[in-house]
Task: structure prediction
Amino acid sequence: MALTGLEIFKQLPQTNCKDCAFPTCLAFAVALASGKVTPEKCPHLSASARAMLTTAFAPPMALIKIGPPGQELVIGNETVLFRHEKRFEHAPGLAVLIKDNLPVAEITTKISYLSSVVFKRLGENYGLDLLALENCSGEPANFKKMVAVAIEKSNLPLILMSENPEAMAAVLSMAAQRKPLIYSAQSTNYQEMTGLAQKYNLPLAVKGKGLDELAALVEKITALGHEQLVLDTGARETSQVLFEQTQLRRLALNRFKPFGYPTIAFALDKDPIQSVVKAGVFLIKYAGIVVLTSDHPADLLSLITLRLNIYSDPQKPMAVESKIYPVGNPGKDAPVVITTNFSLTYYCVANDFEASRIPGYIIPVDTDGASVLTSWAAGKLTAEKISEALQNSGIAERVTHRKVIIPGGVAMLSKRLTGLSGWEVLVGPRESSGIPSFLKREWVP
Result:
């Protein structure tokens, strides 16, 4: 049960010292109860109170890192069942399965290809997060050859999949520095697999046959002293995976400790469309890692786009930095276009500006990630803010003219903006799709 503000207040020093930046200890207690601050904000907590509050407010799901520092996939630490309650903390990783019964040349080509697939979305680069390497041949030598290729040809974090502790030990001797996920500890091998995970300090996937066996296995493994875990219920039918993933999340949020870890799900289907559909279901509810068979760029892009939509903060619009963005190779007489820093608005403007084939500059005004009309209605896109952006961005040093194009939806700002900035204001189209024809028709430096 979550602590109330009054219960937290009883644990505080009650001096109202204001060192936490709150006027009273009670105000701090209420903020802590609502999740707005952490216990560390109070520097005067007793050791016992700090331990109690830290435990009480620790995320119900452990944080797990896979891969070397700087390239690691981070999953877990989730705190809600539904995104609108707060937000989802860490986006699940996408992995493509590669089997060691393929010819080495084919494995090499596949790994090199998967490591090079990159998509640019909203100004960021996205691609595959992991390679899942399966010892399906049962031969340790084949497994070792495939892992050696992955180490040489890819920087992606690895999932090493084998039920054979000897095969796993053989590849870990050369791959442990890459901090892979060991898959998997089961009822027949959990002691050996846990020993390997502890030896190299690696995350370990635990696979059960249903929720009851999984909980029992987790308790046995944590009793051995290892708590870097990722959970697999063993289900493969989509409806059963969906049910069990939901149960795992519910029970984790209710502080059922054996399920307080991120999960892995497998969307393995010979039909790539079915594989992608299953993967989409598991991304939404509630896998920490999704392993799929399809490796076509269109399939991966659809899943990455879905993940971006789900794992954005619903309380924080996606925004770009407010600065000058050149389009093409603009010169001193290039047009200057104003927009807002809402990502979707900016990239629509940028794409349509590029379509005009006229080089220029875009200045997105900081509107806290709101669109043009929304930010104008909220008083966040004003003549004063546009004038400030023109003055502080340094655009005056890049162009010799003093003409600026503003969105047609805020034409009412043009007169005041001219007076404040000294720039001649041109009212552009209401929709960014009209930018190419507008520039070709109206732009004269």
Summary: The two ends are 66 Å apart (CA to CA). The longest strand covers residues 93-99. The chain has three domains: 5-56, 63-310, 325-442. DSSP finds 16 helices and 17 strands in the chain.
